[in-house]
Design a protein that fits this description.
Chain lengths: 117, 117
DNA sequence: TCGTTATTTAACCTTTGGGTTAAGAGACCC
DNA sequence: GGGTCTCTTAACCCAAAGGTTAAATAACGA
C-alpha cells in the first residue's frame, strides 16, 4: 500500500525519530529512558513514539506501568525495496552506517536542537 | 549530514513525488509532461519538483523554454545505507519493486487523489 | 512585434507537524 | 488510602506543507 510508504518515509524524515530508532537498535527501552537524552519534553517523545508505532517501525508493549519500545525493522523492508528499484546500493555497508549513527545518536542530539548551556 | 536525510525522506513521503520519480525512471521529462497525468495544477507539480530538486533526487536543466527533469538516483544512496543498517533487505527484488510501481504510477494517481468524473 | 507555450512567483488558504504546559489515568509501594 | 512514578490526553501555539488562482517572466514561431 502506498500510504504505508507515506507513513514510513514521513516517520524517517525527522532526526529525533531516526535517533530513537538507532537507540532501539541496541536494546528495547522504556519511554522515559528513550526520552532521557533529548532536550525536549517527555510528551513530545511520546508523540514521536506514536508516529513510529503508527508507521510500524516500532512496537510498544505495556508491562506494569512501563511501556517497552521495540524496534520492528521489517517495516523498513518495503521502503528499502522501493528505493532499491532506483539503483543497486551497497550490499550493507556497515562502515557507512556506523558513520550515520555517529551523527545521529543521542550525543549528536545537541546538533539537532542546538542550544548552548 | 543528518539534514540531507531529513530532506530525502521527507521528499519520499509524498505519493505524488514518488510517482514522479517512478516516471522519471523511464526517461527524462519536461515539467509540463510530468504534470500531465496528475489531477492537480502545474504550479503544484512545479513545487513538488522543487522539493525533489532540493533533496537532490532529481536535477533540472533548462534548455530553451523547457526545463528537463532528470532522476538522480545517487541521492538515495545514503538513505538506503541508513536503512540497511537496520536489517538485510532483499538484494534488489525487482518483482516487488514492479508491484510498487503499479500502485504508484500515473494510472494509480487517481487512487492518490480519489475523484470520480 | 504579437500571440502562444513553458514555467515560476506571489498571495493566499487550510491542514498537518512538532512543540509546549497542565491535567488525568494506571500501576506501584508503604 | 496516599504519595509517587510512568505515560497519555487535552488544549493550545506557531511554522511548514500542500494546494489554489492570478499575474509575471521568458523563449519560441509567424
Amino acid at each position: 500500500m502506498s500510504q504505508d510508504l507515506d507513513q514510513v518515509f514521513a516517520a524517517l524524515a525527522d532526526p529525533t525519530r531516526r535517533a530513537i530508532l538507532a537507540m532501539l537498535l541496541e536494546d528495547d527501552m522504556a519511554v522515559t529512558d528513550v526520552a532521557e537524552p533529548f532536550e525536549m519534553s517527555l510528551v513530545a517523545i511520546s508523540k514521536h513514539l506514536g508516529v513510529l508505532t503508527a508507521a510500524g517501525l516500532i512496537s510498544q508493549e505495556k508491562r506494569g506501568r512501563v511501556k517497552w519500545c521495540k524496534l520492528e525493522p521489517d517495516a523498513l523492508r518495503d521502503a528499502s525495496i522501493w528505493m532499491q528499484g532506483f539503483g543497486q546500493f551497497e550490499p550493507v555497508n556497515l562502515d557507512a552506517f556506523e558513520r550515520f549513527l555517529q551523527s545521529e545518536l543521542p550525543d549528536a542530539v545537541e546538533g539537532v536542537t542546538p542550544q548552548r548551556e
